[in-house]
Target: NADH dehydrogenase subunit 6
Amino acid sequence: MGSTLMATTSILLCSGLAAVISSTYSVKQPINDSVFGAHGEFMVALKYVTLLVVFLFAFLCYSLSIRYVQPGQLPHKHPSAPRRRGGR
Model:
């Protein structure tokens, strides 16, 4: 359940970051002022793209985690058939 939550959160952050990157509105100005380090246009774009790649990689890892954990839970949910007494 935690992996599903984190995968959803990371893809939500990716889509929000992509919306900020592609935005041309003046609401983007306070976000650009809060970026630490170099403030050149190329560096800010590089920082955004790096964050986007990190979140996409996190989404990939959490998705693979869900894929590998899910089959392991199936035997716990489906009990085996009851055994008969008497050796048959």
In short: Residues 2-25+40-73 form one domain. The CA atoms of residues 39 and 51 lie 16 Å apart. The mean pLDDT is 75.
